Amino acid sequence: MGGIVALLLAEGYPQRVDRLVLEDVPIPRPREQTTPTRPDGKLTVDWEMVLAVRRQVDTPEAGWLERLSRITAKTLVVAGGPGSHVPQEGVVELARRVPHGRVVTIPAGHLIHQAEPMEFTKAVLTFLRSEE
Which pLDDT tens digit goes with each residue over 45-59? Predict the structure, then answer.
């Protein structure tokens, strides 16, 4: 969900974001609204915020898709490959619609940074250090 927040910031305040890294974030498209089941036990996240962001994900604001073109930051979209529950064609399309976007796939599922921390870090550092 952090990727969605980062997208909204980068399109709303493009002058504040020079580089943007998105981990396995698909293009915002309406989908059947669902409510995730709250995990048992003590949570490390604000559950109400999870539900609020999920509603935005399921029914994105009409102009959200068009505003992707406002992002001026050089953007790396890291895709998780076939093991991810996120539709990978949507991840690739997101990278294509952001003016300075590019995609790299690390076949690790959705939580790429957790499953393949060294490969994820290498991809991100290469991107952040590049002059392009």
Answer: 899 888 888 888 888
Instruction: Examine residue 102 and state whether it is found in any structural domain, yes or no.
Output: yes
- pTM score of the predicted model: 0.85
C-alpha distances out from residue 86 to 18, 24, 69, 75, 127, Å: 26, 7, 22, 19, 23
pLDDT tens digit string along 10-59? Answer: 999 999 999 999 999 988 888 888 888 898 999 988 998 888 888 888 88
CATH number of the domain to which 6 belongs = 3.40.50.1820
Cβ atoms < 10 Å from Cβ of 27: 21
pLDDT of 1 over the 80 cut: no
How many folded domains does the chain comprise?
1
Instruction: Flag whether 41 is in a domain.
Output: no
